[in-house]
Write a structure and sequence with these properties.
Blueprint (H helix, E strand, L loop, with lengths): L4 E3 L6 E3 L3 E3 L7 E5 H14 L1 H14 L1 H14 L1
Antiparallel strand pairs: 1-2, 3-4
């Protein structure tokens, strides 16, 4: 099997496409940032916008009670 590579927009390195998340809207079907850079970007945003992120999570849980309840149940059963 031929391994394919893509350049990450964040770190500017060529990496295996297996290190990129899927993104249906992208022309190649992959995110432009590798998973490592995407995680760092989110963490930076979270710490700069912690109150906003917490409020968003609370609002999401309130609006999706059944989904959240199922998720917690599965998480508890798994372990």
């Amino acid at each position: 099997m031929i391994e394919m590579f893509k350049k990450c927009t964040g770190c500017k390195r060529k990496k295996s496409i297996s290190l990129f998340s899927k993104r249906t809207r992208a022309s190649d079907g992959l995110d432009s940032y590798c998973r490592t850079c995407k995680k760092k970007t989110y963490e930076n945003w979270y710490y700069q916008n912690q109150e906003k992120a917490i409020l968003y999570s609370k609002k999401y849980r309130l609006n999706h009670k059944e989904h959240y309840k199922e998720y917690k149940k599965k998480e508890h059963e798994a372990g």
